[in-house]
Amino acid sequence: MGKYEGDPVWDDVVPIPQDDGEGALAAIAYTDEYAEAMGYLRAVMAAKEYSPRVLDLTEHIISMNAAHYTVWLYRASTLLALNSSIPVELEWVNNVALDNQKNYQIWHHRQILIDHLYDSMSSDPAALKSLAESEVAFMTEMFNEDSKNYHVWSYRQWVVRKLDLFDKGEIECIETLLRQDVRNNSAWSHRFFVVFSNPKYCTPGSKATEYDPKIPGEILDREIEFAKAATFEAPQNQSPWNYLRGVLKKGGRKLSSLECFAGEFVKIPEVGEEDIKSSHALDFLADVWAQKGENEKADKALTLLGDKYDRIRKNYWDWRRTSLK
Question: Which SUPFAM superfamilies does the entry link to (predicted)?
Fold first, then answer.
């Protein structure tokens, strides 16, 4: 006898078995416990039942398969229909998330919960502040487990927009993560989003890779100095070099404005051996020199990249050489 068969709580429900049909799906094998639970879930979904026992059922199924999208959606519908405690649900979700680091469905469910909470407290700044602090605290806990978890970073971007966290506190949180690991490209990407999507001074709808004339000069200068400091810490880390390119693009500034800075990592004498501390700086200078029409210098830089400093992408560097006019 299964978990639900014979249970008086479920006596009135006739489970609906899975119709696998024919072909590949028919070969899928489930445990008896999982198959039984899903049979009861199909039955309550068909009856459009929203009840505490449905919450118990979905919790049991999620404990066996946390990636079942339909179960999460029906659980959310049931919670809202019953006007259940969202904070209590969030505590439960926290534990599930920590046990299922790479699960997307959990974070979609969390968005539904936060959306509902937000609607109920949108006119209460103190409550919104508390909500933001609790969400940031939990994401910090998740990042302590895996600081590059894509699902958490995607969710964090959504939270920043939803709760308007384009502030100094969010930037300081990201700086903390980058001090712990300056090579965390996810943290670099999030910083760029926070800085250059801030509705207080950015052009609405401005794409990440396009010039935005509304960005204040002091913001651009601050971000350039931050990225420059990170390149000195780890010259061969590509993230801050990409960040610098993005900041210059946003500010409508030329790459050549940082030629002297990049030159601190690249020495190519007319006679003797070169001294290259960063292949990314060499790539940066190749673009600078190409844009300035100094094709001989650009060709030299690209040749060094292909033949010595980034040989795995030699075909790419050789192709870049052909584009020099």
Answer: Protein prenylyltransferase
